[in-house]
Amino acid sequence: MEKFLYIALFPPLIAALFSSLFAFSKPLKFIGYFNSTLIFISMISSFYLFSYIYENDFAVEIFLFDWINIGNLNLSFSFILDHISVMMLLVVTIVSTMVHFYSIWYMEEDLGFNRFFTYLSLFVFSMLVLILADNFAVLFIGWEGVGVCSYLLIGFFYKKLNAAKAANEAFILNRIGDMGLMIAMFLIYWNIGTLNFDLVFKTISLIDNDTVFLIGLALFVAAMGKSAQFPLHTWLANAMEGPTPVSALIHAATMVTAGVYLIIRCNEIYFLIPNLSLMIAYLGSFVAIFAASMALVNNDLKRIIAYSTLSQLGYMFAAVGVGAYSIALFHLFTHAFFKSALFLGAGNVMHATNGNLDIRKMGNLYPKMKATAIVMIISSLALSGIFPLAGFFSKDKILESVYSQNHFLLYGTLLITAFLTAFYSFRLIMRVFFTKVNYNEKNSNIHEAKNLALFSILPLLFLAVVLGWSSKYFEEFTSRLLPTFTINLTHEQIWILILVTSFTSIFGILFAIFKYKNLLNKDEKIGFFKNILLKEYFIPKIYKTLFVKPYFNFSLLLNRYIEIKLIDNTIDKIGYFAFNLGAKLRPIQSGNLSTSLRLMIFGILGSLLFIIVLLVY
């Protein structure tokens, strides 16, 4: 068993280290296939590990080596394979494998091809460390690893100013979340004396409730950073400056799912603080509709999909907030596949249109890109929660769980979000594939993606179609470790909720189709409310005014008066003093024997005088 976990964990690291040897060499397609094959091996091992846990129904702890032994702090670098981590392992390795193979085609003409695969494989390894960790310290290593790799990948096109800015923003905002995780770790160790998950969760109920609340709050701040929850959300849409395969990986299987995973892993802490859990649920529902509203009017192909990720993360947090941890994990599971397929389909469109992202400058691509159109339509249907696709089962379960707890405001917010999701998803589909052409067809080279790219998307699309039917088995499996959540509704009530949700989503789709069916792909009028949505509720501007500009001006003052006038000036004067002193003393080293003898006598006399003074006093 241990060797299979190593086979799942270490191939991405080996791939990253090997490709790093050629990081700045000319592009080698061999690197892409080598790394992708190793990730594929990791995926195969993950399936075996899943079957082992499923059949034996117990967690496996695997010790790697002693790590930190200081005073009472004894930490090992070890891993745990249980019902939660093995499901996350499947998500990460399946999506990562397909993204790696897809990237061979997508990045083949980029001079940074080898460097890209180095970062991408290291990203996967960091996420695997995060989800397999059996203590907070090892989790923190993976947590920081995905942060660094996301910085490198978002800013991959570092010569572009926007890419560099987006990478910095993601890195800085995530540092806020990381501080939350560090504070939680300090509080846990201070009060419990260990960072091991098993011991922490067994004894957390023995400490006072206020401290537990602070720990839970700090952990949630960490989750807000990684999963881009309000108010630390602004980096997610800007992260679209990175290559599209990166977007697929970040949004489906790595970075943004880490926050949700952390809360699910720490469910025994949140069980003790229901008020904070409920706050998480309300914030999640707010983020769901907040992000969906911005996606309604955006014209950037990737940003629309990015906002949909933010919105779906809101659904997941709403579920964990009401205690439906298995259901939240199931939505994370299904979302990974249809979202990665949707992003990779968007990558096909970008490739075909020479990097164009403005959906207003597309239109009627369906005849030339039928396979991509089908991929994106099916993925959008899954995202909209249409039966019998995977998104229907997981999203509907979240709505049922919220309603069964009598949180009707949450339910109403999430139901409206379902309508908005369906509308903006098919607004994108219509404007890209079916509205009238709004580009120069004569000078265009619209083409379908190569077979390698399409075959890479196919397994993701297949899972997005069929995975929903496994919901019963998924909940039974994960509920062996996670708290059982019972939806206290009659059979008739459940059917009514299903019909309401389905009709809401279908209405959103039909509304988008009829609205954009005969629309010429041109700029839409920008009214007052639309302008607010396009400006992201002016939140980036508010942040810039309240935080960025004052900090920048404060930095200028420090630079001008502290660094230059005080520190630099002081150091310069010390240097000048030393230089001048040297110039004064230089004659001593003239090499003249008479001068040297006189100085020696002067030194002896001075020493004697000093000794006499000491003896007298």
Structure description:
By secondary structure, the chain is mostly helical. Helix content is 73%, strand content 3%. The protein contains 25 helices and 2 strands. The protein has a two-stranded antiparallel ribbon with strand order 1-2. Strand 1 and strand 2 (73-81) form a beta hairpin. Helix 4 runs parallel beside helix 16, helix 15 packs antiparallel against helix 19 (408-434) and helix 16 (325-352) runs antiparallel to helix 17 (370-384). The longest helix has 47 residues, at 539-585. It is globular and about 110 Å long. The relative contact order is 0.08.
List keywords for this structure.
single chain, 2 strands, globular
Count all strands and give the number.
Answer: 2
How is the main sheet built?
A: 2 strands, antiparallel
Morphology call? globular
Query: Mind telling me the C-alpha Rg?
Result: 29 Å
Averaged pLDDT: 90
User: H/E order of the elements?
Assistant: HHHEEHHHHHHHHHHHHHHHHHHHHHH
Q: Give the neighbour order of strands across the main sheet.
A: 1-2
Query: Number of DSSP helices?
Result: 25
Estimate what percentage of residues fall within beta strands.
under 5%
* Uncertain stretches: none
How would the blueprint of this fold be written?
Layout: H1 2-9, H2 11-20, H3 29-56, E1 60-70, E2 73-81, H4 83-106, H5 113-132, H6 136-154, H7 161-192, H8 197-203, H9 209-226, H10 234-238, H11 244-252, H12 255-265, H13 267-270, H14 274-295, H15 301-321, H16 325-352, H17 370-384, H18 390-404, H19 408-434, H20 451-466, H21 471-478, H22 491-516, H23 528-534, H24 539-585, H25 593-616
Antiparallel strand pairs: 1-2
Helix pairs in contact: 1-3, 2-3, 2-5, 3-4, 3-5, 4-5, 4-11, 4-16, 4-20, 5-6, 6-7, 7-9, 9-12, 11-16, 12-15, 12-16, 14-15, 14-19, 15-16, 15-18, 15-19, 16-17, 16-18, 16-20, 17-19, 17-20, 18-19, 18-22, 19-22
